[in-house]
Design goal:
It contains five helices and five strands, in the order βαβαβαβαβα. It is α/β, with parallel strands linked by helices.
Length: 117
């Protein structure tokens, strides 16, 4: 499975990317939400994990772009943040799941398999 990870924190991109590779997935990592939006219009993925707090572009705005674009609207989306209103944000933008920071890899694995199987 191809999984896009959008987060401005390089350490999180690295850790998630390595974990997903170990689980047999192909991670595509993006530290820039604008570059991610451009790339995801052309490059098909099976799942998107999106950080909600980034300096270049707010995660909620990115999620709305993804859910309004015919090319990406049906890709399962997991929001990722330490924000206390994460469940409400996920409902508001139509995300299929959410993962709270700091995260546990077992929770990530459970979310991925719950959304893609």
């Amino acid at each position: 499975m191809r999984v896009a990870i959008i987060d401005d924190e390089k350490g999180i991109l690295l850790a998630m990317g390595l974990y997903l590779e170990l689980e047999g997935h192909t991670p595509l990592t993006f530290s820039s939400p604008k570059k991610a939006l451009r790339a995801l219009r052309e490059d098909r993925v099976d799942l998107i994990i999106l950080d909600m707090r980034m300096p270049e572009m707010d995660g909620e705005e990115v999620a709305l772009h993804l859910k309004q674009d015919i090319r990406t609207k049906n890709i399962p989306l997991i929001l990722f943040s330490a924000h206390e209103s994460l469940p409400a944000m996920a409902a508001r933008v139509g995300a299929e799941g959410f993962l709270e920071k700091p995260f546990q890899f077992e929770k990530l694995k459970s979310l991925i398999y719950g959304l893609t199987s």
